[in-house]
Design a protein that fits this description.
Layout (H helix, E strand, L loop, with lengths): L13 E6 L6 H13 L4 E6 L13 H11 L5 E4 L2
Parallel strand pairs: 1-2, 2-3
Length: 83
């Protein structure tokens, strides 16, 4: 698990996908894989937010959502982070 910015080398093409991921699902995986190919990205960072001001109910615990994200999105070029 990354706390803070994941490593990235100069010149890398990094895509960002942010959200509460409550829960993470096949749609998140699909758009991530599509973006990796379509935009020729070196990495995609899933930015798991601590909350969502647009929803009345708070999301599940951050650690649970981070674990669920890592479970569903197992790809060597995708990094799940809580930045």
């Amino acid at each position: 698990m990354f706390h803070g910015f994941p490593p990235a080398a100069a010149g890398m093409r990094v895509g960002l996908l942010g959200g509460s991921f409550d829960p993470p699902h096949a749609g998140h995986v699909h758009i991530t894989r599509f973006a990796l190919k379509r935009f020729q990205l070196d990495r995609v960072w899933w930015l798991v937010t601590p909350g969502n001001p647009l929803k009345a109910e708070g999301p599940a615990e951050l650690d649970r959502r981070m674990d669920a994200c890592r479970t569903i999105m197992q790809h060597p070029r995708v990094i799940v982070t809580d930045i």
